[in-house]
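> call design_seq(struct)
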């Protein structure tokens, strides 16, 4: 059985340049609204944000979302109403289970811009007690390998501790894998859920036009191939018993890639 790919090109994402914030929205968010891109399974938000030094998102509130930040470069200072204060660096993943409600701020720490992905998913259970988790995954761990960085509570190897080894625990049917795939390298990733989503991180710089930088080719036995550049993504429709997703770095630079396995 094959996989079906529907491209989500970088230049088609919602986009805003506020000066202090340069952002892309894969799904409807803030002033960007598109009924064709509201959510995908439990996945509700993928924002690729670049925040200028000495600026950021002031204190604001959330509830009933699982909110995680994936830091690409720079440093991000997080403060919240649960008493957590932390500076997140490259390789860090921070997950807040907002549940019945939290307030937090996210600001650039230091003199360099911070580039991070803010991802939200819908929890399987409402009115949860808010919780906070952090994990770190080094570039060495992700080099030409899939690393499971977020996984459902109760899944094998998932510890509900604030810090520690293994993936951060999410209250959604969502598993997130990350890799740094070198030029000419290929990885397979079986998808166990009903849907998937792949995103190529825009590591080479902010670009409002068609994707540039790293190039990857995705395929599956019996499926048509699709080429993605930085900032591009693709919806993946998974038939029961489908063949694994195959990701090949078809360019000449390392590609930072996220794959969501969704039920």
């Amino acid at each position: 059985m094959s996989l079906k790919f529907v491209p989500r090109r970088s230049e088609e994402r919602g986009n805003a340049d506020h000066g202090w914030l340069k952002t892309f929205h894969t799904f409807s968010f803030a002033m960007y609204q598109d009924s064709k891109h509201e959510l995908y399974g439990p996945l509700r938000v993928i924002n690729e944000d670049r925040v200028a030094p000495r600026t950021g998102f002031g204190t604001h509130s959330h509830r009933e979302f699982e909110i995680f930040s994936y830091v690409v470069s720079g440093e991000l200072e997080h403060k919240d109403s649960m008493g957590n204060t932390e500076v997140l660096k490259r390789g860090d993943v921070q997950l807040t289970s907002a549940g019945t409600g939290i307030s937090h701020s996210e600001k650039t720490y230091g003199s360099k811009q911070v580039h991070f992905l803010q991802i939200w998913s819908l929890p399987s259970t409402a009115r949860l007690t808010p919780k906070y988790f952090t994990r770190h995954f080094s570039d060495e761990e992700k080099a030409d390998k899939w690393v499971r960085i977020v996984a459902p509570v109760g899944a094998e190897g998932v510890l509900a501790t604030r810090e520690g080894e293994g993936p951060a625990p999410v209250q959604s049917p969502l598993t997130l894998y990350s890799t740094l795939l070198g030029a000419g390298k290929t990885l397979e990733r079986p998808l166990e859920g009903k849907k998937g989503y792949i995103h190529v991180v825009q590591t080479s710089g902010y670009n409002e036009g068609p994707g540039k930088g790293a190039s990857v080719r995705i395929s599956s036995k019996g499926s048509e191939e699709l080429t993605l550049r930085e900032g591009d993504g693709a919806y993946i429709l998974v038939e029961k018993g489908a063949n694994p997703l195959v990701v090949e770095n078809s360019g000449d630079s390392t590609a930072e890639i996220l794959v969501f396995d969704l039920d």
